[in-house]
Helix-turn-helix domain-containing protein
Amino acid sequence: MDMNNFGERLAVYRQNKNMTQEEFASRMGVTAQAVSKWERGQSLPDIGLINSISNILGIDANEIFGITAKADMTEKDGLFDQKKLLSNICAEPVKLTFGKDIIPAIVEGLKTKLITDKRLQIASLYGILIPRIRIVDDNNLNDKEFQIISYDRVLYREELDLINDSVYTYIMEKLFQICTANYAAIINKHMVKTLIDNLKENYPGVADEVIPEKISYLTVQRVLEGIIMKNQSIHNLIAIIEILEEEVLTKNNNNVNAIVEEILRVINMDQRLTK
């Protein structure tokens, strides 16, 4: 899947529709600056936006991905620049790679809302935020093989017997299942910050002037990891933060394992009382 020319192709298709960056951004529900970065190759749109891009430009996702396009991938062409090199240095929290026979199923599947729906479902059930999923084909894999990777560690690998209409759904179900089971190893400080920022926005006062001012994001991350490793949900984040605050700031308890045990004890006791 050729992503190197994505921005160039996007600009051409947009211009063919006689749309300015501002008009295209407005229809996409993003900023003109975001579109500009896409077209200059400084960033890529979230996978969930590909369907909207295809619909607005009136093209197939195959075209925007350039699956059938051929290019002479030499450094002198300017297609392999430093920004693209740097983007591949950092290991991704979640990456899905697959062989060439699976490409059509993935391209068609990305036109649906399955990833968005699964994210919402997992968040509702377990209170966990699945990060952006990097989805790329890999010529080193067998044609019908796919892998789920986290920070360069292979969490799951499977070779499919056949490719049919349900392949995309099957792969995504497996991906979210694996991510949920291994979430303690996937969660990072950036994801914790996103969770806390959302908590502050929706429930003012719960974590204000506490995180990260008095309790670091890393401490919160370690506590959440501990809860998840005990196969417990972090959905009740408000209670988790309130108990964490009391343990650290009032009781001077800095033992993560002890804090996790206390959080689970209090939450489980509250659940029994409300039944």
Q: What stands out?
A: Confidence is low (pLDDT under 50) at residues 68-86. Residues 256-274 form the longest helix (19 residues). The longest strand covers residues 153-159.
